């Protein structure tokens, strides 16, 4: 019997490899940190703000607004980097994250939610949302989703 399907999988893309390397560096930095829990949390929040500051203008503006909405809506969520992306965790587990369009050369940024988010709505629900702009209406929708995710 001859095999007719030929795999064209070339492995991970350069962007995916960079994200994995970034995650490994984050884990290494976290393990190396010593100090109080508050010191670690403050450093992780600074790391998120630094990552946002590195983004291109459109992504940076959206990430800043998402960060402001998430931290104001759910102060129980702790900012931290997750695979090189700004994310927000509850008890160390990521609930939601912002992915810039530039990171994976996408046409839009993404606000995503992990399986830790309590967004369940029947047998099917959205766990990621495309963002091209963060308006007042979008901010309100983000706030409602985040509030629901941690309820």
What does this entry look like structurally?
It is a single chain. The N and C termini lie far apart (56 Å). By secondary structure, the protein is α+β, with helices and mostly antiparallel strands. 45% of the residues lie in helices and 18% in strands. Helix 2 runs antiparallel to helix 3 (57-73) and helix 3 packs across helix 4.
Give the key terms.
151 residues, alpha+beta, 5 strands
Chart the SSEs and their pairings:
Elements: H1 14-32, H2 37-54, H3 57-73, E1 78-82, E2 85-90, E3 93-99, E4 109-113, E5 128-131, H4 136-149
Antiparallel strand pairs: 1-2, 2-3, 3-4, 4-5
Please, how many helices?
Answer: 4
How many beta strands in the DSSP annotation? 5
- Based on CA atoms alone, the radius of gyration comes out at 17 Å
Uncertain ranges: none
Physical arrangement of strands within the biggest beta sheet:
1-2-3-4-5
How would you concisely characterize the structure shown here?
The chain has 151 residues and is α+β, with helices and mostly antiparallel strands. It has helices at residues 14-32, 37-54, 57-73, 136-149; strands spanning 78-82, 85-90, 93-99, 109-113, 128-131.
């Amino acid at each position: 019997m001859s095999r007719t399907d030929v795999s064209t999988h070339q492995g991970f893309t350069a962007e995916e490899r960079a994200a994995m390397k970034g995650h490994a560096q984050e884990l290494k930095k976290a393990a190396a940190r010593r100090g109080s829990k508050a010191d670690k949390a403050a450093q992780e929040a600074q790391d998120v703000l630094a990552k946002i500051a590195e983004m291109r203008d459109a992504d940076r503006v959206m990430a800043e607004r998402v960060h402001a909405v998430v931290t104001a809506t759910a102060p129980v969520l702790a900012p931290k980097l997750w695979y090189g992306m700004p994310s927000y965790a509850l008890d160390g587990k990521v609930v939601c994250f912002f992915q810039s369009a530039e990171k994976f050369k996408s046409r839009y940024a993404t606000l995503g939610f992990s399986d830790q988010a309590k967004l369940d709505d029947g047998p099917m629900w959205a766990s990621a949302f495309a963002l091209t702009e963060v308006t007042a209406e979008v901010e309100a929708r983000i706030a409602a989703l985040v509030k629901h995710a941690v309820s």
